Amino acid sequence: MSVPKNILESGFDTKSQCCGCGACVQVCAKNAIRMQEDDEGFLYPVVDTDLCVECGLCESVCQYIVSVGKNTALQHAYGGHINDADVLNESTSGGAFSAIADVWCDENYVIFGAEADGLKIRHSFVTDKNEIGKFRRSKYSQSVIGDSFKECKNFLNDGKKVLFSGTPCQIAGLKSFLKGKDYDNLLTVEVICEGVPSPLFVRKLDEKIQKEKKSSIISLDYRYKDSDRWDYQVMNISYSSTGNSINGTIKYDRWLNPFWSIWLAHLMSRPSCYKCPYTTFNRVADISLGDLWGAYAFCPDLYNKNKGASLIIANTDKGKKIAQNTLKTVFIGREIEFAQALKYQSPMRKNIDINPKRDDFMQDLKAMDYDTICKKYAKRKSLKFLFSKYILGTYRQRAWWKNIKRQLKK
Ligand SMILES: Cc1cc2nc3c(=O)[nH]c(=O)nc-3n(C[C@H](O)[C@H](O)[C@H](O)COP(=O)(O)OP(=O)(O)OC[C@H]3O[C@@H](n4cnc5c(N)ncnc54)[C@H](O)[C@@H]3O)c2cc1C
After folding, report:
1. Sheet holding 248-252, edge to edge
2. What is the pTM of this model?
3. Which residue of 190, 204, 294, 329 could cross-link 370, Cys pair, CB 3.0 to 4.6 Å?
4. What atom of ligand 1 comes closest to residue 346's alpha carbon?
């Protein structure tokens, strides 16, 4: 396949061949390619045919054309959480990303990650690990990669130690951009990824807030660890009329949040996510990070109450060395069985299914307001479900009670 020049106007099948990593944009010596948003809110490369000299450079770095090479090293899995309570509180799961950055970055280093500016998500870098707070917290929207691959390459060639974090397709884009060259001074860290949703959905929520509160969203934390609430996966939205001081906040409980209901029903993912080539246990990066799903069943000692626990998978020797060093220094946990961890990580085993209602949903998303969309598509939870989650507790809480009962019987 070659890179189509008018991918923006093409259909789902062609679009599903482009994950939007932006390597083609950054490699083009003629500046003939730019990223442009389509009507679903996803970015695609658009080629200016007047500037294009058909040199083929863009195709040479397209990860969907070039094989990026799979890791073959024996993988190791670890579970646990960072030993710093404040950092843990700011992190999505167990703070594994911060622990790894802490160990890898000793001197002369650069860290790349995804930061948020209101609803805009973009990749950037810091040269002081005390500033990585802005990369913490998963932003469930595709980050705009900008010139990060070029900048990363320059830093690597200058001999700096680089930690590059992102989604698996972004890491594959970087590797492809680097032409598969191995750099001892590069550590790649990917989040295990279920796909990226259309940013149009949260923009609709912003429109609602603008209308009702005469304010705009200035920050959106998808998985706020709210100590006052039952569960730690609360969506916390702050809005402001001036752009500075917060006028108010809206909180959605995990089980009543239309965003999770709609996204996890796979109604609004990027087309390429349904055919993602990285939904396999052969990973792209040195280290993969995720939530320690299933901890209640196979390693309850690592669940860390409601504060969050991470899964770290070391895919290469370099990754293993760093992961093991975190356990000796800043990460509280232990090695766990890789096969068990894999059992609870569907994005490492299979693609997400295309919801047959996706087309209808995307059409409605463009035309309807936030409340109407949610009413039509967010699954209303049954009383039985809510009783089970809020009264009986989550699987983890129920497993915990069972354990206590077992101990008392002994
Ligand atoms: C879009 C997305 C989908 C995910 N899906 C799953 C899943 O299905 N299963 C699972 O177990 N885990 C998933 N994760 C990973 C999970 O949310 C945590 O990031 C992971 O558990 C690491 O936790 P932490 O406490 O170390 O995180 P934090 O310290 O909060 O780490 C944040 C890390 O995530 C990166 N990041 C944040 N937002 C983005 C973004 N938009 N694009 C690229 N990189 C980003 C940052 O650069 C940083 O490296 C997903 C993350 C994202 C961003």
Report:
1. 216-224, 234-240, 248-252
2. 0.91
3. 204
4. 8
Encoded tokens for 300? 């309850």
How far, in Å, from the CA of 139 to the mean position of ligand 1?
7
Output Rg (C-alpha) for the chain, integer angstroms. 22
Q: Tell me: the pLDDT tens digits for 352-408?
A: 999 999 999 999 999 999 999 999 999 887 888 777 777 766 666 666 666 677 777
Those residues whose C-beta lies under 8 Å from the C-beta of residue 369, and which sit 6 or more positions away, are 204, 207, 208
For ligand 1, atom 34, the nearest C-alpha belongs to: 138
Q: How far apart are CA 329 and CA 163, in angstroms?
A: 18
Ligand 1, closest atom to CA 87? 29
Q: Which amino acid is at 8?
A: L
Cβ atoms within 10 Å of 223's Cβ, excluding its own:
21
- Note the pLDDT tens digit of each residue in 94-147: 999 999 999 999 999 999 999 999 999 999 999 999 999 999 999 999 999 999
Determine the Cα–Cα distance for residues 54 and 60; give it in Å rounded to an integer.
Answer: 12
> What is the distance in A from the centroid of ligand 1 to the CA of 138?
4
User: Domains in the chain and their CATH numbers?
Assistant: 7-60 (3.30.70.20), 76-196+269-348 (3.40.640), 200-266+352-379 (no CATH)
- State CA 251 to chain mean position distance: 21
Ligand 1 binding site (Cβ under 6 Å of any ligand atom): 91-98, 113-114, 121, 135-141, 143, 165-167, 189, 191-194, 196, 289-291, 293, 310, 345, 347
